[in-house]
Design a protein that fits this description.
With 428 residues, this protein is an all-alpha fold. It has 15 helices and two strands. The chain has one domain (22-416): Ammonium transporter fold. A two-stranded antiparallel ribbon has the order 1-2. β1 and β2 (112-113) form a beta hairpin.
Length: 428
């Protein structure tokens, strides 16, 4: 009887977890986070991007985001998860988890079901290639988008994910990337720049103005991204604890700081603040805090967010106005530059040795900021170089398999909605 009462008492106590049982609180939080991260792509990113293109291409962008979600999900099931998180070696995982063969209802990853961990990570692989859509919007064949997505996930996302989170060499080196500065934002941003250069500018760019067709849609999508990002960053703690709470707090601070910083820069340079500017600054703040979100405090987040708003703003101006590269929806200057900046700053602001403000960092193990910064720099450089080279090869292969990745001039003029999908976004 005493044993029975003791068992009931232990089971009734929140926060008690055992190595061989599911933690209900953590499981509930990651279930919620998984839904939030998928919400970021569908409908968040889809609406954000959809409103930024011209009327004749809105459905094509929505279709690409939706199709990528489906393709990435099945690819993750078949082999992606296994190659990313299977034991393997320092470069790539193995095939032991292909088709989720070794995952049952009772299989655990820490104290949450491994099936939950697998689908949580699936939402990351969904949004990453979807981000790249913004670079080639309004001019890539739909068949090329699908082929590119499959090859890019297998050859770029999966290996880098394994390097950082799956037991690979960057994780072993001590790289700090809490929620995807290298795995998500640098890979997507660098790939976007490579694709934009290879596919070429849209007809009329930059002489012809190509303003967003529906800013209301984009603002709604941006709001969904902001909310969904809490699952992206705070969910990466894989527990309902103080790490998750702090990650959520610093994510919000950086988003707000990035939005206001970008708005201020635009206001001072062009005379008026724009809605497009403030929501783009918000995304820059979110992307930049992502790698550092589990390692920095409120003060570090404030500095990171303000830096993101200013640096990513100037990066956008430089890419489009100086280099004349048509990265249509600013994927590289926002996500690529933001991911680089955030990953490097994680090595600085995570250290508790910054002491003047208690709200800077929490990574107790970092004794030398310069040493950690060096590790972060190696991670950034390796991710950029690998992504750029492999993405270049993937674009070449995609072009051969689909008879060229770009639609012809007349189709581009008519718009991808009618040409590729025989539909229109609006009926006037």
């Amino acid at each position: 009887m005493k044993s029975f009462l003791r068992a009931v008492l232990l089971l009734s106590m929140p926060g008690i977890a055992f190595a061989d049982e599911v933690n209900g609180a953590n499981t509930a939080w990651i279930l919620t986070s998984t839904a939030l991260v998928l919400f970021m792509t569908l409908p968040g990113l889809a609406l954000f991007y959809g409103g930024l293109v011209r009327t004749k291409n809105v459905l094509s962008v929505l279709m690409q985001c939706f199709a990528i979600a489906c393709v990435a999900s099945l690819l993750w099931l078949i082999i992606g998860y296994s190659l990313a998180f299977g034991e393997g070696n320092l470069l790539i995982g193995d095939t032991s988890k292909a088709f989720f063969a070794s995952i049952g209802k009772g299989t655990l990853f820490g104290d949450i079901p491994e099936s939950l961990f697998a689908i949580f990570q699936m939402t990351f692989v969904i949004i990453t290639p979807a981000l790249i859509v913004g670079a080639f919007a309004e001019r890539m064949k739909f068949s090329s988008v699908l082929v590119f997505t499959v090859l890019w996930i297998l050859l770029v996302y999966v290996p880098v994910c394994h390097w950082v989170w799956g037991g690979g060499w960057l994780g072993a080196m001590g790289l700090l990337d809490f929620a995807g500065g290298t795995v998500v934002h640098i890979t997507a941003g660098v790939a976007a720049l490579v694709v934009a250069l290879m596919i070429g500018n849209r007809r009329g760019f930059p002489e012809t103005a190509m303003p967003p067709h529906n800013m209301t849609m984009s603002v709604i999508g941006a709001g969904m991204l902001w909310v969904g990002w809490f699952g992206f960053n705070a969910g990466s703690a894989l527990a309902a604890n103080g790490d998750a709470a702090m990650a959520m707090l610093v994510t919000h601070i950086s988003a707000a700081a990035g939005a206001l910083a970008w708005m201020t820069m635009e206001w001072s340079k062009f005379g008026k603040p724009s809605v497009l500017g403030i929501i783009t600054g918000m995304v820059a703040g979110l992307g930049t805090i992502t790698p550092a979100s589990g390692f920095v405090g409120p003060m570090g987040a404030l500095v990171i967010g303000l830096s993101a708003g200013v640096i990513c703003f100037y990066a956008t101006q430089f890419i489009k106005r100086k280099l004349i590269i048509d990265d249509s929806l600013d994927v590289f200057p926002v996500h690529g530059v933001g991911g680089i900046l955030g990953t490097l700053m994680a090595g600085i602001f995570s250290s508790t040795s910054l002491g003047v403000f208690s709200g800077f960092g929490f990574a107790e193990g970092i004794e030398s900021i310069s040493q950690q910064f060096g590790v972060q720099a190696i991670g950034v450089a390796a991710t950029i170089a690998y992504t750029a080279v492999i993405t270049f090869i993937i674009v070449k292969i995609t072009g051969m398999l689909t008879s060229g990745i770009r639609v012809d001039r007349d189709d581009e003029t008519q718009g991808l909605d009618l040409v590729l999908h025989e539909e229109t976004g609006y009926k006037y």
